[in-house]
Amino acid sequence: MIKHSKKNSIRLSILGLGTALTLCSFSLVSAQAPTESVTITDQTMNAQLKETVEVVKLSQPGGGQSQSLTVNTAEEATLVLQKYFNLTGFSLIQDEREVPTATYVTTDDNMRVWVGNNNKIIGIDNMKAWKELKNNNETQKDQWISIDQSKEKAIQLAQPFLDVSVQEVQITTTEHPYSDSLIVFDIIPSSEGNLTSDGRFHVTLDRSTGAIMNINPFL
Length: 219
Hints:
Elements: E1 29-31, E2 36-42, E3 47-58, H1 74-85, E4 93-94, E5 104-105, E6 111-115, E7 121-126, H2 127-131, H3 133-136, H4 147-158, E8 168-175, E9 182-191, E10 194-195, E11 200-206, E12 211-218
Antiparallel strand pairs: 1-3, 2-3, 3-8, 4-5, 5-6, 6-7, 7-12, 8-9, 9-10, 9-11, 11-12
């Protein structure tokens, strides 16, 4: 389990929509002390969003595999999603439509993958999970995955792609403005509480199903 640690700075953000995967339970982290939190208001939606910022010690250093996110074909992108994110049962193809929605997609448009100018994957969107979100929210809240379990999974997903020197991260946890069951994590490498990189790993989870809605590995 995660023990929360106190962090002096709290930043405010309203986060948008994202992407998905299947959640499994791993305990890769331990933290330092209680977390501070703040409630922020999205005036356009008349909703209060709770955000916390904390520093978390990794149970093992970063895996240094960020280059594994580099792909040159739809087949390579499919393999990355299978190996690192446990997304299986589909094959991606090049999106060659006149107005493409992503770099690679499935024929039913249930999965979208964006690739940057350096051929690195910068976004994964599980459109199927977004379409099913309304029904998922009918699950009783006492059956939802806990915030700590969700946080552990988010860090477990990021760990392989963090530099091998990274032993600590700052993680911001934010409620999603569009659904009570969604929770957003922003993970940034740090050292003794100080950010050490401009890169970040962004992931949105659905606590009602364990699905990962989106991933943006800007590392």
